[in-house]
Amino acid sequence: MTGEDHRLDWRVSSYSGNNGACVEVAALPGAVATRDSKNRQGPVLTFDHQQWRAFLHSLRG
After folding, report:
1. pLDDT in tens, 5-36
2. How many domains does the chain have?
3. How many Cα atoms within 13 Å fall on the side-chain side of residue 15?
4. Cα dist from 22 to 14, 30, 38, 39, whole Å
5. Domain range for residue 30?
6. How far apart, in Å, are the Cα atoms of 45 and each of 3, 36, 49, 56?
7. What is the pTM (predicted TM-score) of this model?
């Protein structure tokens, strides 16, 4: 990703505690961006919607 990630609407799960040890997500056209909430200037990983759904399914399984 480029420096544009500061414009994204980053969200943290309501299941996260207040310790900052969580992942933030932001919607992109056709994808989902993720980053570590403890290192907001660090790398951003992106997943297409199919990959993201598979990941969420694996968590629920």
Report:
1. 558 999 987 777 667 678 899 999 999 999 99
2. 1
3. 1
4. 10, 23, 8, 10
5. 3-60
6. 13, 10, 13, 15
7. 0.76
